[in-house]
Design brief:
Chains A, B, C, D: This is N-acetyl-gamma-glutamyl-phosphate reductase. Chains A, B, C, D: Catalyzes the NADPH-dependent reduction of N-acetyl-5-glutamyl phosphate to yield N-acetyl-L-glutamate 5-semialdehyde. Chains A, B, C, D: Pathway: Amino-acid biosynthesis; L-arginine biosynthesis; N(2)-acetyl-L-ornithine from L-glutamate: step 3/4. The structure is a homotetramer. Helix content of chain A is about 25%, strand content about 20%. Chain A has helices at about 15-20, 45, 65, 80-85, 105-110, 130-135, 145-160, 190, 210-220, 250-260, 310-325; strands at about 5-10, 30-35, 60, 70-75, 95, 140, 165-175, 195-200, 225-230, 240-245, 270, 290-295, 300-310. Chain A has a seven-stranded mixed sheet with strand order 8-9-7-10-13-12-11. In chain A, helix 1 links the parallel strand 1 (about 5-10) and strand 2 (about 30-35). In chain A, helix 1 crosses helix 11. The longest helix of chain A is centred in the C-terminal third of the chain and has 16 residues, at about 310-325. Chains A and B meet through strand 7, strand 8, strand 9, strand 10 and strand 12 of A and strand 7, strand 8, strand 9, strand 10 and strand 12 of B.
Chain lengths: ~350, ~350, ~350, ~350
């Protein structure tokens, strides 16, 4: 079987990562590649690491250029996927790496993104309890944000098992590729190397409501999340440190048991051996999520740490994982849990 | 006036930073430089950035080599300052960059460091309420740890003003020089570049009781601190993200007002303009601390962020600041608030 | 078909990279993993990125533990492969990632490495003219050094076509993983981040005679090579800038034509489009080599630049490529030309 | 004495570095700060590391705003200094950090920069033989380019002493700040971290004729320079590897002697002890230049390596050094040879 896949936004980081992975996917044929202002340019110049596609020329991002493929993956700025997706056929599998269809509550969309809410699609985080079944055979899937992926997976077992109060603090350190490829002065290499900075502090980052939505679904009630993203000097990777007040007499062993149980059958999530803490390098370029959990006895908080490659499992890898589920392929096809280290 | 200063541990990062700053200090003459296993080696090879001292040869770290100076600065592994300091004259100003004399509670020393408690010296954080006066003319000063410096300064105004519950969560991203110059595999460049990792999770890092001690002194009662250090790919700098549950109707404006008031007269602490968040690059090589604070309305938490150069204000700069206070010099002599950026 | 492969030195960077690639190789079953001082430890701790092998325990590096495999890959410090290989059966394919069998001239071995010369094996650089045939079915292969791989491939077309005098200057910038995983102070992250340095200047680096050997073979006569390695702040990758005096009226077009012709059929070497210069990120984790060439009209020199991932095509990828050739598999099995960027 | 200094282009890297250094200069009062598109913005936002100037607002870059100062330092894109300088009074000391007045030959200006040649000013490299005297009391000074500074200083003693043929190969690795603060995609942190790349290959980089001009002046005849710049993942610093064919029986000792003699009295240039090779970290933020030289006996080439902080001695430090000379101050006022390491 060979499935044709078009990628819209092929010159960006999300699109590039999807293509990197699709080039290693045995069941996929790469179809149209489209760009915005880059239409007409050669991929070899825009994405020089994608050697086998070097001679491909970007077409404009229109319903016409994307038509006729089994799957269309969208790697577009938020607000652009909605209008486009509406013009793609119902039989086409559309996988949106952007934010347009992630949030269910239109008021939250308007508060955090502004403009009209496009709607919500099945949320592409198969590891969320009960979610995998919603993705099998789906024709529309919203790929989660990078911060929500790792923050959610590092927290869900604790909140789902009721080990903690639903009052979570997340501080996440991210590489710069999460900010995209648009040239902004504060993202220049000279500015980010040797530098760590905080941004979007105080609950204003757009990924905050998405984390809350995920945890609320699991808890079945209100959840408070204080989320602070920080930028650190690396291209890829997120390290999320998550904590919440412990309930009753929960011990470190209880916590570990809950995490190990929650992820026992997950192909991409690994609870590290006791005492070993996650590092982003271990999951670089892979679809793996590494998590670890312990209990701070003095502060009476559960502390969990998760890592993910923001472009791989955090974006492009998740898109391929969702593509596999949508098409009924083995969920791990074309994906690896082996990171590129050192 | 010219003061003679000896530096023990001149081959390490703390000692090197003290020397870098002393070379620009107008009232200081650099005396004996000592090392452990490096004794007999030339400083130009060990610290090639200290050009004017390149021909200096390290002497062994003994009371004899350190005797006869007005000031002795100790940059030694913990446990070594205690026995040595006991053999230095009472008139000599001794400034310890290590941990030996930071903690007041012997049980906490034993729990976190092991071995006998050397005692406690005036704590070299002049910005702590009431602390500056204890340091003027002191002959023994314990320089704070790097994490405690920035975590404390980013949190004190909020807890001192009673804006938050004394239940603080700190997640700090540090450059690697905080781990010292001893060659360990996990600190190799190949391991730390492109990598972010957590360590000492769950309240076990040795700086935890020091932060608690500082905040408890200010609050005048028990304080809970959940502290998680993380390592990010840069040589210098710490970014500390601190949060705590808001009390009553505290607003972002209240928070800012408290911070601005607390640091209005501090020469080294700057509360950034509203909306501007700290970045470590801005304080690189300087004695400045940048802080910012806001309120997460939805999560009902105050969130404050502070940055410091772990080797400068976090170690060597603090040592020089303390030296100035001990000797009755202007506190800012030989120090700058201008960072090396980009 | 499934081939069993043992890896000696599985805790090091070369061994780890071989394993990373073998985990994605369809025809290979990973057998014994051995270590030196790490024997008895768990691979999940030593190489946390190799998730699927996390529970493997390292055995001691002995002929017994390595016996009974179709292939043995050696990732050992130089001087250790020789004695070990002598005790492995003739039918076993032995692929040495170390230096022991690279140099043909015993005097050069003694001059640059010291100790007894183990001998020389077929040199595992299939892209060297005529070399591929020597590797098909071979049972002993010496994997080239990382610097020689990229320096040779960036220079061979020019010297082979007689476009330049055989008087080559190579200055190469390398990531730190080329220096291995042994903890040395000058390789600490704090020392290498924000830092570029030269070392082994003046023709004393051990890879110098290997580059000369390669170019001399192609030229069929004496070649002079001035080689200067430099260390730059990244984990992986080498950028080699190579130049030599132009002969006669050689133009940039002549140079490009020679390079394009030389590599037209090579699966892993890509001559970039005119005007596009190589960057290491494009080949990260891949077996690709990117090269570009031009002519400096004023200085009358040909200048060629090549990039390679020192651990992939520069070590582990080359080992797998050689394994494929030795076993009669398609040369590209389990290898990619797609880099991990950004 | 207090001299007023205006800085045009205060929002850029050159202007920011000049200001960083002037803030520590005892004889200077900082006057007008001007910007282009940033006029009207606050310096605290644009250059958050310059704490003491945080409240300064940028004025437009016009002759009027710059008038009335003793010194005007220009940190402008090339082509802008010429027209502006023509409108500044003859008594005003004007120090141009840009390229407009560096080249003496109008044809080279047109070839490498295009547009009209503004002319040439005394070249601000006091370490060039005979040049210091031309700068004392000068009212117009052209600060050298960063690459030419280090390439020239690493090469001059060899060519001046006739130890080598005037046929020099320079390969230089630079941090990204040399490319300025304008946001370009290829300079994004995600693109430059973990990446080394070559650019301007084949003699086309604009600093090439400047290096040739410097060496030709010293040799008193034609010099050939093959110059290749490369970009490596750090904010600051250049490492230049320079080599040339040895003449006659020149030994490494001869070479060292020539370098030590050439720089014996230079306050900022240090020839490292034999066997110690330069690293950029050692000169970070300082005005120091570290050089080392040896001889490759087999390749019969002299190899010299130099390092400089491209923004400090490579731009802003040189500007202050020239300011000191122009005003008759001690040449080292406000400058240091101590680098910020690690």
């Amino acid at each position: 079987m060979s499935v044709t896949v078009a990628v819209a936004g092929a010159s960006g980081y999300a699109g590039g990562e999807v293509l990197r992975l699709l080039l290693g996917h045995p069941d996929v044929e790469i179809g149209a590649l489209t760009g915005g202002s880059n239409a007409g340019e050669t991929l070899g110049v825009l994405q020089p690491h994608l050697g086998p596609l070097a001679d491909r020329v970007l077409e404009p991002t229109t319903p016409d250029t994307l038509a006729g493929h089994d799957v269309v993956v969208l790697g577009l700025p938020h607000g652009q996927s909605g209008p486009l997706a509406a013009q793609l056929g119902d039989q086409t599998v559309v996988i949106d790496c952007g934010a347009d269809y992630r949030l269910e509550d239109p008021r939250l969309w308007e508060q955090f993104y502004g403009g009209d809410h496009a709607g919500s699609w099945p949320y592409g985080l198969p590891e969320l309890p009960g979610q995998r079944e919603r993705l099998r055979g789906a024709t529309r899937i919203a790929v989660p944000g990078c911060y929500p992926t790792v923050s959610t997976l590092a927290t869900v077992p604790a909140v789902a098992a009721g080990l903690v109060e639903p009052d979570v603090v997340v501080v996440a350190a991210s590489g710069t590729s999460g900010a995209g490829k648009a040239a902004k002065p504060h993202l220049l290499g000279s500015e980010v190397m040797g530098n760590a900075s905080a941004y979007g502090v105080g609950g204003v980052h757009r990924h905050t409501p998405e984390i809350i939505q995920n945890l609320s679904r699991v808890v079945g009630g209100d959840v408070s999340v204080s989320f602070t993203p920080t930028l650190v000097p690396m291209s890829r990777g997120i390290l999320a440190t998550c904590s919440a007040p412990l309930r009753g007499g929960v011990s470190a062993a209880d916590a570990r048991a809950a995490y190990e149980k929650a992820y026992a059958d997950e192909p991409f999530v690994r609870v590290l051996p006791e005492g070993q803490w996650p590092q982003t390098q271990s999951v670089l370029g892979s679809n793996a999520v590494h998590v670890q959990v312990t209990v701070d006895e003095a502060a009476r908080r559960l502390v969990a740490v998760g890592v993910v490659d923001n472009l791989a499992k955090g974006t492009g890898g998740a898109a391929v994982q969702c593509l596999n589920l949508a098409l009924g392929l083995d969920e791990t096809t074309g994906l690896t849990t082996v990171g590129l280290a050192p």
